[in-house]
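User: Please predict the structure of the protein below. I'd like the answer in structure-token form so I can feed it into my own downstream comparison script.

Assistant: Understood. Taking the following sequence of 189 residues as input:
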Amino acid sequence: MPKLGARGSESRRTLRRAEVILVLILGGGVFLYFRLVYQPAADRVRALQGNLRRLQSEIQKDQFHAQGLHEIQETITRYEAALARLNRRLPPSVDLENLLEELHGIGARTGVMLDLVKPQPMVKGETFWELPVEIDLRGSFPDFYRFVQSLERLDRLVRANTVLVSNPDLDGKLKVKTVISVYLAREGS
């Protein structure tokens, strides 16, 4: 029987060794899995989460900036419309014959008599040209006022520089001498 007991104890030791080897193999496998698979994947996930947070932050900043872009676009649209209106009122050239017809037409519609309409030499400005036009007219004050209002409504930019008004004559008509300026855009401005 002693032989059987020695064999049994040896077999238990072998079984014990096998269990220890199996635990070491499993522990080594877990360690290798952790070091070679899990840890690199976890590091990659942390890096991706960091990138995600950075991109989310950038998106928030861009969204904040984008809110102002709509307002800026509206402002640009308003300025472009105002510039287009100004460009229509500040043409690059003037059809003198058409301008004189417009002035005489305004005089007829407002009840003033144009005695003189005399264009003067063009004056070169820094960003525009100015065409002075000397005008002598007769009419009542309300008619003269309507004449000036009609000038203001012209499609071109016009300004009355000087206005000299005489006392009314016996018919109640004023004699008015004025110089208006018609403005034109300079090429390249």
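That's the full token string. Helices lie at 2-89, 96-110, 141-152.
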